[in-house]
Amino acid sequence: MEQFQLSGTLTGLHHSLEKAYQPEEFRRVGHQLIDLISDQLSQASRKEIPVIPYRSPEDELNFWKDDFEKNQGGEPIELFQKILDHSSKVHHPHIMGHQIATPALLSSFGGLISDILANGTGVYEMGMASNGLEKLVTDFLAQAIGYGLDGGGFLTSGGTLANLTAMLAARKAKAKGNVWTEGHSQRLAIMVSEEAHYCIDRAARIMGMGSQGIIKVPVDDKYKIRIDLLEEYYQRAKAEGLQVIALIGCASSTATGSYDDLDALGDFSHKHDLWYHIDGAHGGGVILSEKYKYLAKGIEKADSVVIDFHKMLMTPALNTALIFRRGEDAYKTFQQRAQYLWDQQQTEEWYNSGKRTFECTKLMMSIRVYTILRTYGPQIFGENIEKLHGMAENFAQILKARKDFELAHEPESNIINYRYILAEENKLDALNTKIRERLIHEGDYYIVSTSLQGKKYLRSAIMNPLTTEEDFTALLDKIAFLARNI
Ligand SMILES: *Cc1c(COP(=O)(O)O)cnc(C)c1O
């Protein structure tokens, strides 16, 4: 591909460096920006603007090349307007696609403050508030999981990284010898459901376990890991010379939002001395809802749990908690020395979060979560989960009552899979694919798609608590209309 050259009028600008640091300029643009964003949020909530202003990747790139050619030195507010106009709107009620939170608005100011303060958080002095709040927020989750007083953890940049970090802790704890100093000579493996998020597979491969080291256990007709097959898969791996170090439970799985039997997985892990990890990136937050915490029954048996605040817990991305049953396990994963960062190399200080995280410099993530906790109280998370789950049940009922749609499975969480079915079976995959494409290009609704048992389905994660029953019906009517006109 042709490379884009930075050229043109850049050299013609004569701004002094001081200009980039003027508080009054920040104030001026900041006021404009808050007005601009607030207006757009209102428009999005009233559905007056598209949820996705779709353009092809080439058109989008050309738009920005053109912007750079013509507008260097221009008013920043015009740039911000363009970025807003060219992005998907997660506060729009028609956002029914990926599992990204519709953030509580005040929480986003936490992001702004993190950017302005730019405290790296990895060491205490560069993140006094954020380290203090991080302990508070992660202790809150540890308690909700049901861990004892020695449970605890940290925040990190996304579920993918958190799952990898947990697998490293598992290896440190369960592989023979001292992996940190000597590496490992045995062939290691982990066991997980075939419906797990791809990042688990990726973590195993990053750690050098290869294809054989990721043992994918089949699921039942509800997309939950088959407990009855665990022993057989485990024994087979052992017979092949693998040392299984960890078993991972999905809470919930990505495609269908199904919860594994966490209790039974815990018992199996205990029996074979495996590290028990739960990928609750999407659905682990149900522990904060009285009504839905039964879905995660047994979660307290896990050695480690990942929960994304930026999925079901109203926080802007990225914002992930990795919590350990024995908080001290978190300190064992990385045993590195960094004389310039920490005076004490081997001690466990909760306030130097970089001793436990992949990141050295890290965003001040805890501020965003704590803003929600402090402003609205901890019960808001449960309210959100109950709202989103309830709406998904509502959507499922609407789908079941219609003859032109098929619901793939009863939803266990806020993820719904469905397809339009008024055509011959062998045409349905192509038809549903085309429907989604048309829908996205028109921009009024945002949904995604997936394959289940070899068939193409439309997929919606209900993430915005302000989406309504009318929005579901309007979406389905629109899909039916498109289907008849393709
Ligand atoms: C989203 C998700 C992940 C990945 O988390 P990121 O924060 O996107 O990196 C992992 N597992 C599950 C179950 C998820 O839903």
In short:
With 486 residues, the protein is an alpha/beta fold. The protein is 41% helix and 13% strand.
Helix content: 40-55%
- The 3D shape can be described as globular
SS field, number of helical segments: 15
As a whole number of angstroms, the C-alpha radius of gyration is 24 Å
Average pLDDT confidence is: 94
Kindly estimate the percentage of residues that lie in beta strands according to DSSP.
5-15%
Ligands, ions, cofactors: pyridoxal-5'-phosphate
- Could you describe the largest sheet, including whether it forms a barrel? 7 strands, mixed
Spans where pLDDT lies below 50 across 5 or more residues: none
| Helical/strand content category | alpha/beta
Order of the strands making up the biggest sheet: 1-7-6-5-4-2-3
Task: Give the helices and strands as they follow along the chain.
Answer: HHHHHEHHEHEHEHEEEHHHEEHEEH
Secondary structure: number of strands: 11
Distance between the termini: 34 Å
Sum up the structure in keywords.
486 residues, alpha/beta, four-stranded antiparallel beta sheet, 15 helices, binds pyridoxal-5'-phosphate
Compile the SSE list and pairings:
Blueprint: H1 23-45, H2 57-71, H3 76-85, H4 105-117, H5 128-145, E1 152-156, H6 159-174, H7 179-182, E2 187-193, H8 198-206, E3 214-217, H9 230-239, E4 242-250, H10 262-271, E5 275-279, E6 304-308, E7 320-324, H11 329-332, H12 366-376, H13 379-401, E8 405-407, E9 415-420, H14 425-442, E10 448-452, E11 455-461, H15 469-484
Parallel strand pairs: 2-3, 2-4, 4-5, 5-6
Antiparallel strand pairs: 1-7, 6-7, 8-9, 9-11, 10-11
